[in-house]
Amino acid sequence: MHEQTSDIQNNHPQPTVALAYKLRHLAVIISSISLLAHSIIVIMSKKQIHISRSRIAIVILSIVICAAFLLTFAPRQTTQFGYEYQPNKPWRYSTLIAEFDFPVLRSETEQQHLRDSIRNAHQPYYQVQAEIGTQQLALFKQDIAAGKFSNVPQGCLKFAEDQLRRVYAEGILSPKEYGELKTTYPNGIRVVSAQRATHKKLDDIFSTRTAYESIINADSLQRWGTLLQTCNLNAYLQPNLSYDSRKNTAVLEDAYASIGQFSTLVQAGQKIISQGDIVTPGMESILNSLKDALDKRQGEHHSDWWVLLGQFLFATLVFLALFTYIYLFRRDYMERNNVLLLLFTLNTSLPLITYLTAAHTSLSVYIIPFAIVPMFVRIFLDTRTSLVVTLVIALLSSLVATDQYEFLLVQILVGFNTIYSLKEVTERSQVLRVAFFNILVAWVVCFSLDLVRGITFTSWDDILRFDYHRYVDLAISGGLQLLAYPLMYVVERIFGFTSSVTLIELMNFNEGLLSRMSREAKGTFNHTIQVSNLAAEVARAIGAKPLLARVGALYHDIGKLGNPVFFTENQSGVNPHDKLDELTSARIIIDHVNNGLRLAEEYSLPQVVREFITTHHGKGMAKYFAIQWQNKHPEETFNPEAFTYPGHYPNTAEQAALMMCDAVEAASRSLKEYTEESISNLVNKIIDTQLREGCYNNCPITFADIDLAKQTLIESLMRAYHTRIAYPELK
Q1: Alpha carbon distance 446, 455 (integer Å)
Q2: Which domain does 7 fall in, by range?
Q3: 703: buried, middle or exposed (CB in 10 Å: 19+, 13-18, 0-12)?
Q4: What DSSP letter does each residue of 89-104 carry, written as one string?
Q5: Of 464, 497, 530, which one is at a domain's C-terminal end?
Q6: The domain boundary residue, chosen from 305, 334, 363
Q7: How far apart are CA 261 and CA 315, in angstroms?
Q8: For residue range 196-219, what is the model confidence (pLDDT) as tens digits?
Q9: Is the pTM of the predicted complex or chain greater than 0.85?
């Protein structure tokens, strides 16, 4: 495998990872500047722009505020070291070469070991108290003169006196202190006498007990042994050596000070560690020293203000890149406050959580479930926006990641897997399945990077040295992704979105408005069921959202609950319109739109469902009563506003599908026979009329989509109104 050595410059040392980090920053800055330049060109050109300048100013101001908010919690102290390692684990990076001289700091363990060695080799200092020996000899002579030893020959007393003088000259300690020295300082002590320190072995000095034994056994001729025992010499033996604490403290402090903070010097060009080498305690000290040296050299040329400015520019440019994409490719989002609020919240909260986790906990940033963000953006917005948001979140969060390269790869690939695997959430098992595959993707990425770094599994020792911590963190992150299901409800309520789960809940016929409609307006209920089936088929055919179209169709006529008997499908032979004039009848029919909006608000229906109520008739007319009025009043001026619905034409493909299906299904009930020709003529006539009236001018659908919708409606109605064969009678 080709090894690439680290690059640590003399003035600004930068290892490979740090260099890659800066190159990534540079790439982001260049791409952002190019996108901004393009947007400026678009603005300055005379093209039609639907976004107001005030809206753009508000977005830019929000970007600056979010960037400044992130800087409040972003790490201030940065390092150029850029490596992550653990003791007794393999070095995962390429060979590290020192490009400048730096001293190696002694570790605390090493310094303590040296202090222990100095203390063990130390010879404690003792002061000779000569006056004690002089006093005791004088006392002995005084007792001799007083006749205390009258039965002892003078020769024996003279011998005892000489021996007392000898042991005092050698030095005497207490038995307890003498025993402790034997254990603690077996190399001996230093005896200070007349400002001169002399080394003495412990065998050359005495305790009071050994001094007495030495005197008794000193007579080699065995003449005075018994007589000396009668002289009570123990009474004249006192310790004359005292521990000099001041001298000993000063000597030890000087010895400790000589250890020094540094153990050795790593020279420029010297190899520090190779890929796959084990990070031993000694190697850890060298790496820590290199990190401190890099931080010190950086501090000499780099202040916190420059770090702050760099972080602010980086965060601002990343946010600008996101919203430049939105301006160029999803301009409609710029006018939707809930979308902007969601994007700002997600792109700020996740990096903030990452910063706080890294700064105030011992947890790894890999434990954070970043995949929840692309999951929400994919469900509530679209795929492309989710991809861009994934990149933005990964870039902003990587500021605190030690191994930015690996962090970016893991989060980006996991985010992409989430986007590609999850289009809509209709079942809880979908979230569980995506989380499981996200764990697998993250593990495969980390495992592949470990193999690239040279980690093998050829021996049991290699397996034992394998770092499992990151894999455990990623598994925990995958488990936390399951929180997306309950959090989806919170996001919906706060930001005003509607998920597939909510739409499925709205399809419950046993509660709410649908249950009420099935009881109070059975004909309308059956009509909505038929329309919902048709709308779902058409939406599926033209690439729209079938579930949304189905739910919108189920609720589009809920306003008829106010006066159900005035609508044909709920009548049973008696038509109350026969007793009313055309204007009154038209007003009752038209009011079902406003009544539907009031019921939708009362039952807290999502805004996306309310739009179907507003648009299913658009700005069309109640043509039946309008034509009747004109036939009865040919000489009067016709006022079309009195017969016009108060809505607006569809804005989405799903709303367009409902308008087609609603009109076609209602008209199909008036057919006398259901043949392919009659159904085809009906469908084409109704939809072509709607096209001429401009009903679909604001919809993102093409003529090809309309033709496909026609064919789908014809086939669906043929299946719905198929004839059955007559069963023969048994003869």
Answers
A1: 11
A2: 1-90+281-334
A3: exposed
A4: SB--SSPEE-SS-EEE
A5: 497
A6: 334
A7: 40
A8: 888 888 888 888 888 888 888 887
A9: no
